Amino acid sequence: MRKIREQDRLDLSIVVPLYNEEENVNLLHTRIQTVLETIDKTYEIIYVDDGSRDQTYPLLKQIHQQNKHVKVVKFRGNFGQSAAMSAGFDAARGDVVIAMDGDLQNDPIDMPRLLDKLEEGYDLVSGWRKNRKDKLIIRKVPSKIANKIICSVTRVKLHDTGCSLKAFRSEIIKRINLYGELHRFIPALAKIEGARISEMVVTHHPRKFGKSKYNITRTFRVIVDLMAMNLFMKYLRNPLRFFGKIGVMFIVFGIISSLWILYRVYLFNKPLTDINILLTSVFLFIATGFQFIVWGLLADLIVKTGKRKSIYLTEKIPINGKSFMKSK
Ligand code: UDP
Ligand code: MG
Q: Are the C-beta atoms of 85 and 183 separated by less than 8 Å?
């Protein structure tokens, strides 16, 4: 986790990932800025350009030049929404971080209410698109099913885990490592960190400009991530428990069968050579068991001490002669 100097701290960071959103950029910024001016907080807006090929980045750059509250992170390629959000969270200096989509489907007008809810004593407040304005068959239905599965697997009860509009306390969001499509599971990942989670009904608009970046294949990727997530939730902190259980099972089985063989040898006076192969395989069981335990120990070591490779690569953008974010 990057340390933030005390004098650099802010009350609030807004993080917005953008990929080919040229028609939305200016309007989005005006809306965010208008709302932020009504609340008495120090803030920054971090726009992450996820390798757009349209005018998104030049427009963001213009906004940045006119507004000292705006930071822009530019990716070298399209690394995906999770990576873009992750870069925004890494750069954030606010005590509270609000994430939202950059296509105007989320409405910045909900931000003050999210902050109020957080103040009630939560670490994460997740938006709930109760009146969602997306297509029924290809978007809302798969999303409802996915939400049900995600909730039952991760045991975090929310109506709408897929809503990007969320507010977090920075100490929680900065501990979360996102990859794949994991931004959908932020509440579950936050729960692992001990977060108190709540949800709030938020406004949702149909997409007016630009196209959605996803199609139905996303559902499959989400399911794969969900399986990884399930393992994560159970064993991320203690892989030794996962491998250890298997190891112990092998060892117990090995010991019981060796005792049984030895018992037969002594009881029935069978020559040991008769059952040599059996005995060897039984001992192999014990050796395999120990091997699992050693793997568990190694995995434990990696999880607890290993450094993860960054999932994105930023371009250095000279801002007032200094690069704002170091390329990872
Ligand atoms: N996005 C991104 N990288 C991607 C795909 C999407 O940064 O590879 C951004 C996109 O510009 C938008 C947000 O993530 O601001 C949500 O994407 P989209 O609106 O396409 O998703 P949907 O609302 O259709 O689920
Ligand atoms: Mg959208």
A: yes
